[in-house]
Amino acid sequence: MTGHILFMNLEELLKAYSAAPQVKHLIEQLTAGDDRKDFFLSGLIGSQDAFVAAAVFKQTDFNHLFVMGDKEEAAYFQNNLKSLLGNKDIFFFPDSFKRPQDFSELSNNNVLLRTETVNRLSNSNTKGELAVTYPETLIEKVVRQEVLNEQTLHMKVNEKLDIDFMIDLLVEFEFERVDFVYEPGQFSIRGDIVDVFSFGNEFPYRVELFGEEIESIRTFDPLTQLSQKKIASVTIVPNIQTHFSNEKKTSVLEVFPANTIVWFKDVQILMDVFASALEKAKKIQPDIKKHRIEHANHPLLEGEPEEIFLSSAEFLKGISRFRVVEFGRASFFKAEERISFHSKPQPSFNKNFDLLIRNLHENDERGYTNLIFAENPKQIERFYSIFHDLKVKSTHPAKENGKTSEEVFVPIYSGIHQGFIDDDLKICFYTDHQIFNRYHKYNLRQGFSRDKALLMKTLRELKPGDYVTHIDHGVGVFSGLEKIEVAGQLQETVRLIYAGNDIMYVGIQSLHKISKYVGKEGEAPRVNKLGSDTWSNLKKKTKKRIKELAFDLIQLYAKRKASKGVQYSPDGYMQNELEASFMYEDTPDQAKATEDVKRDMEAT
Length: 604
Hints:
Radius of gyration: 30 Å
Number of helices: 19
Helix content: 25-40%
Number of strands: 29
Strand order of the largest sheet: 3-6-2-17-18-1-19
Largest sheet: 7 strands, parallel
Strand content: 15-25%
Structural class: alpha/beta
């Protein structure tokens, strides 16, 4: 591939990589029947590994498991793949703990993500799935596929469902029966509606029955308790880390189908983790057993570390059934074929834009295409503005080879973690955050945790006798939950008691109107009476006072506007450079506030 590329997008970039001789050869070898040869890819720099992996994925129908050096590296790699492959689901397969190799505290969210991945990929007929992981994950054993299949509850629309059987099974799965479902491992039953939060899905399910027949199944939002997407069938799986005994568990590699390509970055790191994990588990196990109440479901209570975690010998045996692609600093396995790439890291510009412009022009003269990746379009605008302001300062003339500084690069409105220069394809992949020395944050799906269900959590924490405020009726006393019949259906409600022992029931769809009373500490509030004008009069007085305050502010602003002020000039080079150099990206609200302030400052 030579010469300049006038236009390029992500799809064309992946096509270019698919056509590159090294990648084309790798694809041909991987799809060549039952040949089990392993490969080592040398010379991959920055985020180039993700481009190669995405190109291979697009041209094959295998499953792909990527094992990176640590959790952070895995998270950035997954984000790179998501940027390149768009809407494709890419599973992040974490360890079970809140911090890698700190076995003291389990993470429910991590267990959910692990279960979802195992449940999705344990099907031997699965094709075209991608999962990204790191060494600490592979040392943990998971439930065997046949055991998981036996311990899975399947439900389908129009099929019959025995409620008593389902309750018994969920209790056996160690699910907790609650009033409102808001985290994995919970279920509730309200008349003909069954809510259940499986460990294998991001959102809980709502199953509606007509007699003994399943009429509909939907996912729903635990925060609002409102239904979302309608689906035809669901599978309910228990916690794969704590529900099953150690003898029913095996290597993670055993649950992945044989048609999986395993990609390793620096296998030696993984082997070092295997060596240290057992020693750490042996040290921490006595403390966990000593405090077994706080660690009721901890796997280290079930047996010795050797039974719970995988040994390096077991790992090497398990990996022998897969084709392996290694990359990184050195190969660990005996690679039958080495494939070399010729690349360099993105240069360090240290926010020196004269140096950046000079480099872009030099690349252009050599026949290289310059790409600048930025997730935020505002950053591309800043590049154009800075380059325009620097024309007169640049050591290059305004026109060189028929191109201005602004025309010498192609913007790519997507993010990658680390830039690189591909000397084979003659393309320079530059990232905005490296040019501006900004921190680049990765994003991982957090599942649905307790903090996202704040309303439900607050409700569960309320105790009878606590004061609450209803936006329409004022201060009352929380008196617990009660099922009442509405239109022939039993519904869960919140019971509030007001002055004179008046009772009001609030449905779960109106929970956003209730909040815990906040007032002077140590002073009990006056409880309002339903139907009286006290609360409405208080709100009217408050609104009147707010209007008076607003009127005073308007008068103040009018005086300021009438007085002679300073009109500031629009942003220039130094302002753009300063903003672009901030370590963290503005939130949308922060960016809007900044634009509003600037607009006022620039107004006459």
